[in-house]
Amino acid sequence: MDNISSYHFLTVTALNEWDWTSRIIFFSFALLAYLLTIVLNAALIMIIAFEKALHEPMYIFLCNLCVNDLCGTTGFYPRALVYLLTETNRISFEECIVQCLAVVYSVGEFTNLSVMAVDRYIAICQPLRYHSIMSPFTALSLVTFIWIFPFFIGVMAVSLALKHPLCRHDINKLFCEHLSLLNLACKQDIFQGIFNGFIYISMAVFFVFVLISYLKIILACRKSKVNREKFYSTCVPHLISFLNTTCGLSDSLLTRFKVETLSNIAVFFVFVLMSYLKIILACRKSKVNREKFYSTCVPHLISFMITTCGLSDSLLTRFKAETLSNIASTFLSVIILTFPPVVNPVIYGIKLGPIRAKILYIFKSPRINNL
């Protein structure tokens, strides 16, 4: 705990060059995004919780995803709104640690999405065995893992950040996260390297799970129109969420390990793009109507835009590009904490038939119409 006595407060420097006009504009958008995040995710959680027909593993995992989004955004937005609306750019060390826990815990979204990928693989590739494999006990075990793993990562990350005194107090991001604190420490030790290696290996294992699951799903979709329908309705939203989270994780990995090139990330996205190109070609040759084909392009375009933004932030982090303004670089750095929590409930609400039907039923109810 020596570092607490070294610096009682840390300084967030991301907004130093912002004028009041920019602050007010971004404050308005940030407040709107935060309110939308709370309303949309809370609504989806309530729909799944109160609708017995949705008490299935896929929707339970989706509910966990919404809870995770709420945790991450609640750890980020309140303090960011204070920074934007006032001249305060200091945060106490204790508050910074709490924010670190919230941000690191939001990485649990990636764990959740990996579990959801395996669930979709079983549902599409082994539908007759789905309920026997994805039993209530299995689903409960996976949900427990979704919560325990990021909690362990968060506690370990903060513990390592507390281990050494800080030699600097300036944080170049709009929020606290454990990598920023580690960069402020006076020295690094072998335990930090081992822990970061563990995170790297864990993320690689999750990547492999997701890629193998989607490869098998794609192969199954080529042979069955029913599987293609199921893929469009359940897997496309999941893939969008997965790409969202991937952008943020690639930024963190590049920051920590100082990767000299983006070749590994490029290979991953080339794989995704090639896979989707083949899916589009296969769908155009099938009897699926053109309207359905074009409806799937919208999620693909969203994914591409999110990926582009994420890679832009990664390039800025690695090469410290000076061509973009401080405002643009700050905006890119917080996309992973702000965009997915708003997009996820919208995409899932639109693409998943049972949830969409429940939403339409609520809006068509007499009580709503009489308001």
TrEMBL record:
Molecular function via GO: G protein-coupled receptor activity; odorant binding; olfactory receptor activity
Keywords, sorted A to Z: Cell membrane, Disulfide bond, G-protein coupled receptor, Glycoprotein, Membrane, Olfaction, Receptor, Sensory transduction, Transducer, Transmembrane, Transmembrane helix
Primary location class: membrane
Any Pfam family matching the protein: 7tm_1
Transmembrane listed as a keyword: yes
Membrane topology term: Multi-pass membrane protein
Cellular component terms (Gene Ontology): plasma membrane
Superkingdom as given in the UniProt entry: Eukaryota
Residue ranges of the TM segments: 24-50, 137-162, 198-219, 231-255, 261-281, 293-315, 327-350
Gene3D superfamilies found in the cross-reference section: Rhodopsin 7-helix transmembrane proteins (1.20.1070.10)
Residues in G-protein coupled receptors family 1 profile domain copies: 40-348
Subcellular location: Cell membrane
Record bears the keyword Disulfide bond: yes
PANTHER family listed in its UniProt record: G_PROTEIN_RECEP_F1_2 DOMAIN-CONTAINING PROTEIN, ODORANT RECEPTOR-RELATED
Family to which the UniProt record says this protein belongs: Belongs to the G-protein coupled receptor 1 family.
Name of this protein: Olfactory receptor
